[in-house]
Amino acid sequence: MTLLAWGLAWLLDFTLGDPQNWPHPVRWIGNLINAVQRVVRRFCHSDRALRIGGGVMWLVVVGLTYGIAWGVLKLAASIHPWLGWGVEVWMIFTVLAGRCLARCAQDVARPLREGHLGESRLKLSWIVGRDTSALQPEQINRAVVETVAENTVDGIIAPLFFLLLGGAPLAMAYKAVNTLDSMVGYKHEKYRAIGMVSARLDDVANYLPARLSWLLISAAAFLCRLDGVHALRIGWRDRYNHSSPNCAWSEATVAGALGIRLGGPNEYFGQRVDKPWIGDAHRAIAIDDISQTIRLMWVASTLALLLFMAVRFWLVDAA
Fold this sequence. Notes:
Layout: H1 2-15, H2 25-43, H3 47-79, H4 81-95, H5 98-113, H6 117-125, H7 137-184, H8 196-205, H9 207-223, H10 228-237, H11 247-258, E1 261-263, E2 266-268, E3 271-273, E4 277-279, H12 288-318
Antiparallel strand pairs: 1-4, 2-3
């Protein structure tokens, strides 16, 4: 039944994604982060105090998320096993973000393909932290490919990895870790101190999933009849060409599979950030690379699901 729940949740994400008006745990986690952050900022003012307060915020948000998820699952199962199973499917479904990621990428690509550059820039600004107001089509394509490649890890592979390790409650706790990083884990002056713990622990949480993504995306490249050998080679060569210890693993592998170059300088919060280049520019990046990256994401995530289900089956069988 556990493996069936995993498979059904993944299929729901693949077909439905997250309907906009449905209640979603990530929104609740975001509201909790905002509430705790306000309390921390009220009492903590120096950088040192904000770092400590940020650590307390991380413990409160992640701890509450895990505890509530575990409690809700236990309560539902005590009422009826099928209710518990249904709640488990719903929780797993909500931590997966493949369809949402694909939809957001396509929302940027569609107006760009139709020549509506301003609309494409606007839609891109909803999913990236960089300044999009003056980006040209090639830069937009690059930003979307990078976003899909990076979020293949924390939107699908990592939640499935923590699902394997500790079931739906731990997958929900990972989502809290990732949401904390996305909300406060910036080097910008406003968040540098309070978000330090969240940023570093997100790096720790994604350490193994990011490295697994190198192999999974490379295997997906072979299956998609792209350059799997180059994906493996560039993924390894450029794995540290990023300020994050994890992001370049998936980005470099996608760049290698497609034969394009990612990274480079960008504007964040009005400041120019000179990032190293990732991959080799065998050709100019094109709008079709967005759909190719989405395809790689789906195949890699399917491989991740099958791998983790096989490991789970082997562990249960061995026990």
